[in-house]
Write a structure and sequence with these properties.
74 residues; 7 strands; 0% helix; three-stranded antiparallel β-sheet; two-stranded antiparallel sheet; mainly beta; 10 Kd Chaperonin, Protein Cpn10, Chain O; extended
């Protein structure tokens, strides 16, 4: 019998953040615009190592694709 054991320290803990800007959405294979599921002001959960970190005017932001968001918090 085989398996994989992952220690608790290796498990990725989701991060929480507030959406401050949203793009127009992605294009499907036919060129039709797919609107994003999130909107400005939503609180979301996302992976700790997701997206690209950038610093603008001393503030740190994470830029990510909508598919990288785990959940929208209410």
């Amino acid at each position: 019998m085989g398996g994989i054991i992952i220690p608790d320290t290796a498990k990725e803990k989701p991060m929480q953040g507030k959406v401050i800007a949203v793009g127009p959405g992605a294009l499907d294979k036919n060129g039709k615009r797919i609107p994003p599921d999130v909107k400005k002001g939503d609180r979301v959960l996302f992976g700790k190592y997701t997206g690209s970190e950038v610093t603008i005017d001393g503030d740190e932001y994470v830029i990510m694709d909508c598919s990288d968001i785990y959940a929208i918090l209410e």
